[in-house]
Amino acid sequence: MPRPIHAVIHQPALANNLDVVRRCAPQSRVWAVIKANAYGHGIRRAFAGLRAADGFGLLDLNEAVLLRELGWQGPILLLEGFFQPQDVPLLEQYRLTTAVHCEEQLRMLEVARPKGPLGIQLKLNTGMNRLGFRPEQYRTAWERARTLSCVGSIVHMTHFSDADSARGIAHQLDVFDATTANLPGEASLSNSAATLWHPQAHRAWVRPGVVLYGASPTGVAADVASFGLQPAMSLHSELISVQDLQPGDTVGYGSLFKAERPMRIGRGGLRLRHMICVDLTPCPKAKVGSAVTLWGQGLPIDDVAMASGTVGYELMCALAPRVPVTVATLTAPEQPALA
User: What positions does the domain Alanine racemase C-terminal occupy (predicted)?
Assistant: First the structure.
């Protein structure tokens, strides 16, 4: 018998969340970011719900090939670009747009000289300090890219570090606008947070990620409650054990929890890698076999992640391969959460 746990991927929720993005940025085209196997949802499963996007952004070349095999003929963007000279012919073969963020990538294009034209997104480091040419290097890099016969369109690209926090994006946006002033080409700036909260940065393209899956860029569910996002993944289990505790009783390895009052606790089926315990005192009717929603409608993944000391993105991507997954193509009521 399989363990009593299963995940559901809700394709209508993905489509709804893409619509939310379009309402937030109505003048922009949308790169739907499906990195990390579509944030743990599975590219094959997520594709149908997001296929109304203008393009898909991802990290892995093999995932880009899979997307073509699934029938997608539109734009695909490699968000970190390519890593080896032998990758360049694959960019051409599969009609991929690539980020170019460093001297080494420019040099590989100069040496490989594919027939092209390849679309590139030239990345400007405006303060994130992970990838990209520094402002004083950017125009020289743009001039080099423009002279390559294999390069077609050049989109100006950056990434915000504080679009979901009080510091905001003004400091980076000023650098971007000053550096790219009078350079032709479209711009792609906005991550999920900037898409929701910073319309001045929407430009020609936006690149939403975590919001497409119904989670908050800040990790706080209340911050996105007004947007109408829906959870694209729900995780369900059952109670497999119920125990009555007295004050002083401990639970689990290392006796990490000690009851301070009479309690009724339950163990849920395996979640990701471990059993979990929950206080059933407020749920007197709960018993072995009672349904449990670990996250989903009515129980935002961000709330669960916060209680677990992590973020929703990490929980989504940590779904173990052995957890059975079904796909909901029509909206259906969720199982009630035990709280």
Answer: 232-328
Which superfamily does CATH assign the domain made up of 233-328 to?
Answer: Lyase, Ornithine Decarboxylase; Chain A, domain 1 (2.40.37.10)
Selecting among 39, 138, 213, 253, the annotated active-site residue is 253
Whether residue 94 lies in the annotated active site: no
Read off φ and ψ for residue 235, nearest 5 degrees.
Answer: -125, 125
Cis peptide before 117 (omega within 30 of 0): yes
Q: Annotated binding site for substrate, which residues?
A: 130
Q: Which residues contact 125 (CB under 8 A, 6 or more apart)?
A: 101, 131, 132, 133, 134, 135, 158
The verdict on whether 115 is a catalytic residue reads no
Annotated binding site: 130
Active-site entry in 35, 94, 258, 287: 35
Which tens digit of pLDDT belongs to each residue from 115-138? 879 999 999 999 999 999 999 999
Q: Which superfamily does CATH assign the domain made up of 11-220 to?
A: Alanine racemase (3.20.20.10)
What is the per-residue pLDDT across 97-108, written as a single tens digit (0 to 9) for each? 999 999 999 999
